[in-house]
Design a protein that fits this description.
Blueprint lengths: L1 H6 L1 H7 L4 H25 L12 H27 L2 H8 L2 H13 L5 H18 L10 H24 L5 H23 L8 H25 L5 H7 L2 H14 L5 H19 L5
Helix pairs in contact: 2-10, 3-4, 3-9, 3-10, 4-5, 4-8, 4-9, 5-7, 5-8, 5-12, 6-8, 6-11, 7-13
């Protein structure tokens, strides 16, 4: 559900009347009051345990790192969306599972099973089939594709960090503390980019609000919630349904057609996710 919700983000970014950096900034800015309102409701209702209050500089630093990684992810990705195709930007983002597995092993000595690796390779092969036609090197798309790969690296760092935080804190607590960092980083990037920040039409605000409430609050919260119950490696693989949803939506909205090769790739992605699930342990 989280993957499907976030898959519509590139479509909304394309429809935004401001540039990539301001769009990322408004995505986080408009999400902050939603998170804070939810946190206040939980606190007033007496459903927030004392252990949910972060203590110690190391915890705050980890939450700030989660926010910084996600802000970097969004900043790079939003530029990628405008510099290459919607499907390509989303597909390159989904190299993330490889970085998550590698990062988990290097940083935390997290091991994965042979069955999981078969599922990962199958799903990544499907991703290759899905993106094969649009990954040809060219001057017009190369930089956008490179930013898509950088996005995957940032997103892997975000998932691994949130996985650690979810061992102690709720999704809402993490988002309440991480989102202001996201706002700060993306504001700095937007100001340095020199792009116009003003949103001048109600339709423009509606797109940004939909981006904040849908892919951000709903989609990313569901993904963060899952990270307390499933390994980050499998969560990353399961998110590979995003390019299938995004490419299908882009076909309908932007006439970025999906051919037989891409359709077979989608089947391979879904099969790989199913295999990886069999090789993953539920927490």
């Amino acid at each position: 559900m989280g993957a499907v919700a976030t898959a519509f983000a590139p479509i909304l970014v394309r429809l935004s009347e401001v540039g990539p950096s301001p769009t990322a900034f408004y995505r986080f800015l408009l999400a902050v009051p939603v998170y804070w309102t939810l946190a206040l409701a939980v606190s007033v209702g007496g459903r927030r345990p004392a252990r949910e209050r972060p203590t110690g500089s190391s915890v705050y630093l980890l939450m700030a790192l989660a926010g910084a990684c996600f802000a970097g992810d969004m900043a790079a990705w939003h530029y990628s969306i405008h510099m290459t195709s919607v499907a390509n930007a989303t597909l390159l983002l989904n190299v993330t599972p490889a970085f998550v597995v590698l990062g988990g092993w290097v940083l935390f000595r997290t091991r994965v099973t042979g069955t999981f690796m078969v599922g990962l390779v199958t799903a990544m092969t499907g991703i290759g089939a899905l993106s094969g036609a649009s990954l040809a090197l060219s001057r017009t798309r190369f930089v956008g594709d490179l930013l898509g790969l950088l996005t995957a690296l940032f997103y892997a760092g975000y998932q691994l960090t949130v996985e650690r935080l979810r061992q102690r804190f709720s999704t809402l607590t993490i988002m309440v503390y991480a989102m202001p960092v996201c706002v700060t980083v993306t504001l700095a990037v937007a100001l340095l980019s020199g792009e116009a920040m003003a949103v001048t039409t109600p339709a423009g605000w509606a797109v940004l609000l939909a981006l904040a409430v849908g892919p951000q609050v709903l989609g990313q919260s569901l993904i963060a919630w899952a990270l307390a119950h499933l390994p980050a490696s499998f969560v990353s693989v399961s998110l590979l349904v995003q390019p299938i949803v995004a490419a299908s939506a882009a076909w309908l909205l932007f006439d970025e057609r999906i051919g037989p090769q891409q359709a077979l790739g989608a089947v391979a992605v879904l099969g790989g996710i199913a295999i990886a699930r069999r090789g993953s342990a539920r927490r």
